[in-house]
Design goal:
Length: about 575
């Protein structure tokens, strides 16, 4: 592998001198250039697009206040893959959340298969109970001895300044991810298939500018001196007059089109606006079509975001949750109208899949003015330290013993999980956990304030608002979700909570764990992974038990594969 590390002075010329389709990967440290010269950066990234070969990878380092515009630009020419959030040194701000969120965008070029190597971080263990920080939920037998597969939220590397540079551990992890072993050209691949050894080429990459690469143990002088506090307010004039909403306009669940109903609300009338829109992933909603053309989806989102900006009070806050690709577009739009406060990373791994597991949901936080907005950080700014696990048994024991270290609430939220159990879920494809909405509402409103969600789905936002003594406005286009929301609100007002029915799973004669361990024992005996025929000959369990329990043979062999690898 040949990597070029040009300095700041030569970086652009080195890119321009690279042949078209000649580089396998490029790592751009935008903070070592001028991150506020957007046009110059776009010209630089345009050269990256040209120089990358088909299947090549582009990594772009930066900060979430300016990266979205670059990401939107690149999304026209490359395939967006991940917004990798990297926990870095704490940056304290004049207002809002302390920030630890630096980022690396990952794009690929062309239609070739996206290749990154499966990379692992070592398992971490609870400082109190000594079990893994990650609760495997009875699946500890499936833990890989080398660690866990990394996701797009990196919180286990040494914290460093990844805002004005890229640290050595982060760069090393990126290089470990590269799955770019020397390959022959297309013709050579055909020769190799025929048993003839063809020529191979050298993998080529470019990383820089080198002034932006941190040196371990040395604090690098940043290329541009800038700080997180005091992002400039957009050049937009707002009236400071707060308009009261009539009694009939709040504590209501509307059925209808979000934009048309939002137009009925006056300027500067709502304290908190929140949205968790459909993610354009073809999810199964009753009414809404969740698979629009990209441009049409963004246009629709901008239509209700524009109304959100208008109705938001001068002291109010806007939050919008989406997948990182769409969050970039929301941020690029909102940066023209509101004051950026945070790109909050909700670290919410849903299911392990892929070589880089998707766990990152982007939660944007904007206000109408840079300071003097409602924000109750003093009451909510401390969390249990992350070196303790979240198992309820461990929490009870250590708190009873007075072991209760704390850490700051920052813009990476790792302690709130997605809804795991059917008993906690309504019939909705993307329901949010109560704890997420409770934190947002507590942070950005006071009792009696108005909370609005124009895409309320199963009603988590208004239900939590009522529970916390806030007023609410909820809108949804689906009559079924409107009825679910009204029913839940009525139940909260009557009982103080939403009652959930228990979900009883049918008891299996054999557990998945038992069967997986059986296959691991057979693998140890055979010295290889067992086949269905091996099970028929050697196992005390009938083959049909395995076939009925697991959707694929690969799933059944998970524990056996770990045994063979170790």
């Amino acid at each position: 592998m040949h990597i070029t590390y040009p300095d700041r002075e030569d970086f652009f010329q080195t890119l321009r001198g690279a042949g078209s389709n000649s580089l396998d990967f490029i790592v751009v440290v935008t903070a070592a250039l001028n991150p506020f010269n957007t046009e110059r950066l776009k010209a630089c990234l345009g050269e990256c697009v040209r120089a990358l070969r088909n299947g090549g990878l582009l990594f772009v380092q930066g900060r979430p206040d300016y990266l979205p515009e670059l990401g939107v630009y690149l999304d026209q020419y490359l395939n967006f893959k991940y917004w990798i959030a990297i926990e870095s040194t704490v940056q304290h701000r004049d207002s809002g959340l302390p920030s630890v969120h630096a980022a690396v965008l990952l794009f690929s070029k062309g239609s070739s298969r996206f290749n990154v190597r499966r990379t692992r971080f070592p398992h971490r263990y609870c400082a109190f109970c000594k079990r893994t920080l990650k609760d495997w939920g009875g699946k500890a037998h499936l833990m890989h001895p080398d660690g866990y597969v990394i996701s797009d939220v990196w919180t286990d590397l040494p914290q460093a300044d990844n805002y004005t540079q890229i640290s050595v551990p982060v760069l090393n992890t990126i290089l470990r991810m590269l799955d770019l072993e020397p390959r022959g050209e297309e013709k050579a691949d055909l020769l190799q298939q025929a048993g003839i050894q063809g020529p191979s080429r050298e993998v080529k990459g470019l990383v820089g500018p080198k002034e932006g690469i941190g040196v371990e143990g040395v604090v690098a002088e940043p290329a541009i001196q800038y700080s997180l506090p005091g992002f400039l307010k957009p050049d937009v004039e707002y009236s400071d007059v707060i308009n009261e909403v009539g009694d009939k306009k709040f504590d209501i669940v509307h059925h209808g089109d979000a934009v048309e109903i939002l137009k009925q609300y006056p300027d500067n009338s709502v304290d908190l606006v929140f949205a968790d829109p459909p993610y354009n992933l073809d999810k199964s909603y009753n009414v809404y079509e969740d698979e629009q053309e990209d441009g049409q989806y963004i246009k629709w989102c901008n239509s209700w975001l524009r109304e959100y900006v208008r109705i938001l009070k001068p002291t109010g806050s806007l939050y919008v949750l989406n997948l990182p690709r769409w969050t970039m577009y929301h941020a690029a739009f909102l940066n023209k109208w509101l004051c950026f406060q945070s790109w909050i990373v909700w670290d919410a791994l849903s299911e392990p899949r892929g070589k880089l597991m998707p766990a990152h949901y982007g939660l944007l936080f904007y206000t109408k003015q840079p300071t003097d907005f409602t924000f109750n950080y003093r009451e909510l700014g401390q969390l249990d330290a992350r070196y303790y696990c979240l198992r309820s048994s461990c929490v009870r024991k250590r708190k009873a013993m007075g072991v209760d270290d704390k850490m700051l609430l920052t813009d990476i939220w790792w302690d709130i999980h997605r809804i795991k159990h059917r008993r906690d879920r309504d019939y909705h494809p993307c329901q949010l956990p109560d704890a997420l909405m409770e934190r947002i509402i507590r942070l950005s409103t006071n009792e009696g304030d108005i909370v609005l969600d124009a895409l309320c789905g199963a009603g988590t936002t208004p239900v939590i608002a009522v529970t916390l003594g806030r007023r609410y406005v909820a809108i949804d286009i689906d009559q079924k979700y409107v009825q679910i929301t009204k029913k839940k609100i009525a139940e909260v007002k009557r009982k103080g909570y939403v009652e959930r029915e228990s979900v009883h799973k049918p008891q299996r004669k054999y557990t998945k764990k038992e069967l997986q361990l059986e296959l691991r024992e057979l693998a140890a005996e055979l010295g290889r992974l067992p086949t269905p025929k091996d099970v028929q000959k050697m196992s005390e369990y009938d083959l049909d038990v395995f076939l009925d329990t697991f959707p694929t043979w690969g799933k059944a062999l998970k524990a056996a594969k770990l045994g063979v690898q170790s």
